[in-house]
């Protein structure tokens, strides 16, 4: 059985909390590959990332699953402040920490990201040398495309709140919050018909979810187009694309995936939130294990 322990590392001036999964000891005692994992927009590791890590660990992979600074169990203030640059720095710090761990092969570090972090793993693999393999699940690849997927009236109201929050930050005011997921017609970052209930389904029973982030990301997200970095990813990368994705449209992702030198694509007839649960989860995680087996252990059929 896999073992999970609470660990922490430092990113900037914040202490980052994580789970370290180690697979059951093998026969030869050799160092094992490790997957660095984190969640998407405003989400934390308790929202189903344990299910993925348990499956990967059962297949022989160590996993480092962390919360970004300002979120979940990690330090950092102001709380719920989502900053792309800081989150990418957290990814870099996590990779550096993983490479120092006993029993881990530093030459077989993989990245796994989903939704917003699906974009982060593309950008990280393009920036950090030596990443061995990447999985980008229902990845956010183009801020402009994602904003265009929102109703124009909603986008305008989100932008107004984002500008208000940004102006307040210049004056030293605390962040103005906006819901991460909302119902159609509400002012939230994700308001597709499947967004609100789909987001809530990822929350464990009885757990408290802060369904909000600092509103300024609503304007900054448009400049984030991590899919453009796919052409610079030198290692194998698997794009797990949801055909009816309401948050990260499939079209731009497929165009970016075609530019990756060693890109692979797997398509799923699901929406953005359905991929985490049930039969869809079983299909995607089996594909991901097969991909990592092929590129990190050479054991795939």
Automatic annotation (TrEMBL):
One term of GO molecular function: carboxylic ester hydrolase activity
Keyword vocabulary terms for this entry: Hydrolase
Domain of life: Bacteria
Domain Xaa-Pro dipeptidyl-peptidase-like: 19-145
Pfam families: Peptidase_S15
Family named by the database record: Belongs to the AB hydrolase superfamily.
Name the record gives this protein: Xaa-Pro dipeptidyl-peptidase-like domain-containing protein
Lineage of the species this protein comes from: Bacteria, Bacillati, Actinomycetota, Actinomycetes, Mycobacteriales
């Amino acid at each position: 059985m896999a073992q999970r322990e609470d660990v922490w590392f430092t990113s900037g001036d914040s202490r980052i909390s994580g789970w370290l999964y180690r697979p059951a000891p093998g026969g030869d005692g050799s160092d094992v590959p490790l997957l660095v994992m984190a969640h998407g927009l405003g989400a934390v590791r308790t929202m189903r990332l344990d299910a993925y890590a348990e499956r990967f660990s059962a297949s022989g992979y160590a996993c480092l699953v962390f919360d970004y600074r300002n979120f979940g169990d990690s330090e950092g203030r102001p709380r719920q402040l989502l900053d792309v640059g800081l989150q990418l720095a957290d990814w870099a710090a996590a990779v550096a920490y993983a490479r120092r761990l006993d029993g881990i092969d530093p030459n077989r570090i993989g990245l796994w990201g989903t939704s917003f972090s699906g974009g982060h793993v593309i950008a990280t693999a393009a920036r950090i040398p030596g990443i061995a393999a990447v999985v980008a699940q229902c990845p956010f690849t183009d801020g402009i495309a994602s904003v265009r997927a929102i109703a124009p009236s909603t986008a305008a109201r989100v932008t107004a709140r984002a500008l208000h929050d940004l102006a307040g930050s210049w004056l030293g005011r605390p962040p103005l919050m906006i819901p991460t997921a909302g119902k159609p017609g509400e002012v939230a970052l994700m308001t597709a018909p499947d967004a609100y209930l789909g987001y809530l389904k990822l929350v464990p029973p009885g757990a408290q979810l802060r369904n909000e982030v600092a509103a300024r990301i609503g304007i900054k997200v448009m400049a984030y187009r991590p899919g453009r970095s796919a052409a610079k990813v030198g290692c194998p990368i698997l794009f797990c694309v949801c055909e009816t994705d309401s948050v990260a449209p499939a079209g731009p992702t497929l165009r970016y995936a075609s530019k990756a030198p060693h890109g692979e694509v797997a398509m799923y007839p699901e929406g953005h939130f359905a991929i985490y649960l049930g039969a869809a989860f079983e299909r995607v995680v089996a594909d991901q294990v097969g991909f990592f087996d092929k590129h990190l252990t050479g054991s795939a059929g």
